[in-house]
Specification:
28% strand, 7-stranded mixed β-sheet, 2 domains, VC0802-like, Rossmann fold, alpha/beta
């Protein structure tokens, strides 16, 4: 029976495990790194069937996974750990020949794993290159994953799409440019990537709760016209931009002609039900089929129930496409919806 290592955002592993149990009642789970990483077994379901189902309808809180194909203890010292890693890499020779491979090594905070990520990767690369594999950090055919918990080293080889993310542990990283207005921009950039939703395909965007302009700046860079709604000031770098209109009003107080926008984005730090009422009231301002990207703040103790309730409310005016806790989300998730005709 195939087992997997799963990863969620810090503090959300219990919800990821609960979500998996609800979808696959025979599945068994156990925690590894508290609140973030866990181990789970398919419970008799064929591995490919389980992976196909997870890819078809990604869980909200499961950020990353990989199959456990080999295990080794961490109590034998650095030489024994290195030998186990090299032996696993060599055992993959027939599978990696002629393929490109990324080697991703990570560990829990309490792990005695004796190597850094780069050191661990460098231990395994010679065996892979000797087998005829090409090595690259991302965009590869396969990923060799290594995770060190408090007591055990877990290793597996899989396709990037089967891991749900080709970043180590699903930890998506963007370069922070000097002109970045706020780190909130990373949430929108990650949503664009995770949902396969190129922002440049849209024309007119409405940004609710826009100040100081992290999301607005991304939309402007993609070439959109943006109406930013927020009583607070926008960043100086955005003032006077020819494609930006800033309405210094509360989002609950604005109104627009029907079909004015083909994209709505909202990252307001308000109660999610209040945000839902505002966005739903503005639905007529979106054209039929228009998209909306909305951050849902999980201010209540039961996030799965909160998400279920909000899906029902948003579902009155929108088609729910995806809900995902992105790496750059904190106590929140990101939802992609489309305006119903």
């Amino acid at each position: 029976m195939m087992e997997f290592i799963g990863t969620a955002n810090p503090g959300f592993a219990p919800y990821a495990m609960d979500e998996l149990r609800r979808r696959f009642p025979a599945l068994t789970v156990s925690g590894l790194a508290p609140g973030e990483t866990f181990r789970f077994a398919a419970g008799g379901r064929p591995e490919r069937e389980l992976i196909a189902e997870l890819r078809r309808d990604e869980p909200v809180f499961l950020r990353h996974l990989f199959p456990i194909e080999a295990e080794a203890g961490l109590d034998g010292g650095p030489d024994a750990v290195a030998d186990a890693m090299i032996r696993f890499a060599a055992s993959c020779a027939n599978r990696v020949r002629g393929k490109t491979v990324a080697v991703q090594v990570r560990k829990s905070q309490d792990s005695p794993f004796p190597f850094g990520s780069a050191e661990g990767r460098d231990l395994m690369v010679p065996a892979l290159t000797e087998a005829g594999a090409g090595i690259a950090p991302r965009g590869t055919d396969l990923i060799l994953s290594v995770y060190a918990s408090k007591k055990t080293l877990y290793m597996g080889l899989s396709a990037p799409e089967d891991n749900l993310s080709d970043w180590p542990g699903g930890a998506v990283r963007f370069r922070r440019d000097d002109g970045l207005i706020s780190r909130a921009a990373f949430k929108l950039l990650e949503a664009e990537q995770a949902f396969g939703l190129p922002l440049s395909r849209f024309t007119n965007a409405l940004d609710l709760g826009a100040a100081p302009g992290g999301w607005t700046s991304v939309l402007l860079e993609r070439g959109l016209k943006v109406t930013a709604v927020d009583p607070a000031e926008m960043a100086d770098s955005l003032k006077g931009h020819p494609r930006l209109r800033h309405l210094r009003r509360n989002a609950a107080e604005v109104d627009f002609a029907p079909g004015s926008f083909d994209l709505l984005v909202c990252d307001m730090s308000w109660d999610p039900y209040h945000t839902c009422r505002i966005v739903s009231n503005l639905a007529p301002a979106l054209s039929a089929g228009a998209s909306a990207l909305i951050t849902l703040k999980l201010m209540h103790r039961k996030p799965l129930q909160t998400i279920s309730a909000l899906k029902a409310e948003y579902g009155k005016a929108f088609e729910i496409v995806r809900i995902k806790q992105l790496f750059h989300n904190r106590e929140e998730v990101t939802m992609w919806v489309r305006r119903k005709a």
